[in-house]
Amino acid sequence: MTLDKLHKGQKAIIVNINASKALKDRLTSFGLLKGEEIELKTHSLAKQTFEVAIGQTFVAIRDEEAQKIKVDLI
Question: Which terminus of the chain is more exposed, N or C, with fewer CB under 10 A?
């Protein structure tokens, strides 16, 4: 399952990030790492952007980026 398939309030563990090195580096700088717990807080009406929480950090992710983040539900 990918991050864009989560529902509001669902928690998951990041399994893999299938992206270019530049995008992976940017996501890593926000704390999105393999093995980290992530929670989908909310998304835009058209699901074009997602707000996720990693620990105490909130990050906004575009749909194209969320599709590249593989997760397993907790």
Answer: C
